[in-house]
Amino acid sequence: MIGRLRGRLDWRGSDHVLIDVQGVGYIVFCSERTLAALPGVGEAVSLYTDLVVREDLLQLYGFSSMMEKEWHRLLTSVQGVGAKVSLAVLGSVGPDGLSRAIALGDWAAVRVARGVGPKTAQRIVLELKDKAPAVMAMGGAEAIEPADTGGDVIEPAVTAANAPAPQSSRSAQADALSALGNLGYGPSEAAAAVAEAAGAAPEAGEAALIRAALKLLAPKG
Q1: For residue 193, what are the β-bridge partners?
Q2: DSSP 8-state symbol, 79
Q3: Over the stretch 140-160, which tens digit does the pLDDT of each residue have?
Q4: Interacting residues of 67 by C-beta distance below 8 A, sequence separation 6+
Q5: N or C: more exposed end of the chain, with fewer CB within 10 A?
Q6: What is d(CA 163, CA 189) in angstroms, rounded to the nearest whole number?
Q7: What are the DNA helicase Holliday junction RuvA type domain coordinates in residue numbering (predicted)?
Q8: What dihedral angle (degrees, nearest 10) is formed by the CA atoms of 42, 44, 46, 50?
Q9: pTM to 2 decimals?
């Protein structure tokens, strides 16, 4: 199994790239969001990968983070969702957006992806809602170090598009989820509350997220 590639970006297409790894070229299919975050041709690149092996197919899919890769794995486990649809979803809303959409039951947010109808969007949210907390706890995109290709390589510039999410924000959400679980809240309801709280205050710390989530979880009336 090929789980990660590190090399030089040789060519960029509309839905895939060619990565040179010590003289061997690998074609890797990626979401639009991941493609946009990659450096320019000739620069160092590193991607987590998932290899699909079938009788008549050998295909690599690339991801900027383990969280994106895990969501791809879960999405393709849903009936009617293949790799192409999965990449469309991840390209439209991103791993964090998908986490929030599933945790909040917002199937309309998933439906905006190309090739996803209302029934498929609802199925994705329904089947993956109990798995969202574990993936959300993984956090956003990890920083990936440039590949050592043996030559002079220009390191990719950090931009707003490819900059990793602040570690403090990811840790706060993971810790808030853990705290709510310890308080007896179920994974789905805790994830929904933390997702809504984090959406309203992206820079909030763990304590603030827990307080906001508890207010959302409090009985109404």
Answers
A1: none
A2: T
A3: 445 344 445 444 433 333 333
A4: 95, 96, 135, 138, 139, 140, 141, 142
A5: C
A6: 30
A7: 1-62
A8: 20
A9: 0.73
